[in-house]
Structure formats: C-alpha cells, structure tokens
Design brief:
It is a single chain. The chain has about 140 residues and is of the alpha+beta class. The chain has a single domain, classed as MS2 Viral Coat Protein (2-Layer Sandwich). A seven-stranded antiparallel sheet has the order 1-2-3-4-5-6-7, covered by helices on one side. A hairpin with a 6-residue loop joins β5 and β6. About 25% of the residues are buried.
C-alpha cells in the first residue's frame, strides 16, 4: 500500500512544476485519498476553487479484483472586477476517465486541466495505487 505524499507534475508548458498537496490519505476501502493544488498561482483563490484529485480503491462485488476510482475537478475561477470576489464560472470534471469539458471554458484552461490530469495519472504514486489496488494512506 503506497504512503500518502504530495504529487508534483508538470503544467502543459512541460517545464513548470505544479504541486498537489496531500490533504488526507485513504482511511480504508472506498474512502478516497485527497490532494489539492494549494501552492503557486492558485494560493490566492478560495480553497473551493482549486483543483482537486481523489483516488479510492475497493473490492469488486465477488471480491475477485480490486478497483481504483479517480475523480479530478479543475474549476474555472473568475474574479469580479467590482467586488474582487472569485467564483467558479464552470468546472472541468474527469470522473473515472470520463472527461466533461464545458465548451464555455477557454481553450488554454481546458488544455491545462487535461495535461495536469494526465500527468497526475502518470505519477509514481497513482501508478503504485493501481499496481497494488490500494489508495495511498497515512
């Protein structure tokens, strides 16, 4: 079973690092390990408007195989120039590999979300979760 840790991936530019901070390890079957992008350019955003990744694992029905489920949410945050408050205009959601890519989100934001998700899936920690069948825990 892999140990919970931060995950560092590259942005779509291929050079800039993005850190997904480890928030909580999986507490057992079907309880997700959770990461959130808390550092860098997003540090000024409310926490509810930052990208999050969840990974959970569990047995299938007859207990003949382990299943790994991944959920990724990348909010499209905008700031009101009058009030200076941020809000989520929309969200890119990738759940179980199914990508929901709203057409009203700018292409560069869609690109960034997809690249970061794919890089997260290629991280050593998520590969280890898939290999062992257990989500990272503390």
């Amino acid at each position: 079973m892999p140990a919970m840790a931060n995950i560092t991936v590259k942005k779509s530019d291929g050079t800039t690092d993005i850190v997904y901070d480890a928030l909580s390890g999986a507490g057992g079957d079907s309880t997700p390990a959770v990461w959130r992008q808390d550092t860098g350019a997003v540090a000024g955003l409310p926490v509810g408007l930052r990208a999050t990744l969840k990974c959970s694992t569990q047995w299938n029905g007859p207990k003949t195989a382990r299943q790994m489920k991944v959920n990724y949410v990348y909010p499209y945050a905008v700031q009101d120039s009058t009030t200076t408050l941020y809000s989520a205009k929309d969200r890119i959601v990738i759940d179980g590999g199914v990508m929901t890519l709203p057409q009203g989100i700018p292409a560069n934001i869609l690109k960034e979300a997809v690249y970061q998700y794919c890089n997260l899936m290629a991280s050593a920690l998520l590969k280890a979760a898939g290999e062992t069948g257990y989500a990272p825990s503390t």
